[in-house]
Amino acid sequence: MKSISGARLGILGGGQLGRMLIQSAIDFNLYTKVLDPDPEAPCKDLASSFHTGSLTDYQTVVDFGQDVDVITIEIENVNCDALEELQRQGKRVYPTPESIRTIQDKGAQKDFYKANGIPTSEYVLLEKGDEVAAHTDLLPAFLKLRREGYDGRGVQKIETLKDAEDAFDKPCVLERKADIAQEIAVICARRPSGQVVAFPAVELFFNPEHHLVDYLFCPSSVSEALQQQAEDIALQVTAGLDVLGLLAVEMFVTTDGKVLVNEVAPRPHNSGHATVRANHTSQYEQHLRAIFDLPLGSTAIKIPSVMVNLLGEAGFSGPARYEGLNEVMATEGVYIHLYGKLLTRPFRKMGHVTVIDTDLAAAREKAKFVQHTLKVKA
Amino acid sequence: MKSISGARLGILGGGQLGRMLIQSAIDFNLYTKVLDPDPEAPCKDLASSFHTGSLTDYQTVVDFGQDVDVITIEIENVNCDALEELQRQGKRVYPTPESIRTIQDKGAQKDFYKANGIPTSEYVLLEKGDEVAAHTDLLPAFLKLRREGYDGRGVQKIETLKDAEDAFDKPCVLERKADIAQEIAVICARRPSGQVVAFPAVELFFNPEHHLVDYLFCPSSVSEALQQQAEDIALQVTAGLDVLGLLAVEMFVTTDGKVLVNEVAPRPHNSGHATVRANHTSQYEQHLRAIFDLPLGSTAIKIPSVMVNLLGEAGFSGPARYEGLNEVMATEGVYIHLYGKLLTRPFRKMGHVTVIDTDLAAAREKAKFVQHTLKVKA
Question: Which of A234, A323, B271, B359 is geometrically suited to a Cys-Cys bond with B185, CB 3.0 to 4.6 A?
Answer without folding.
Answer: B271
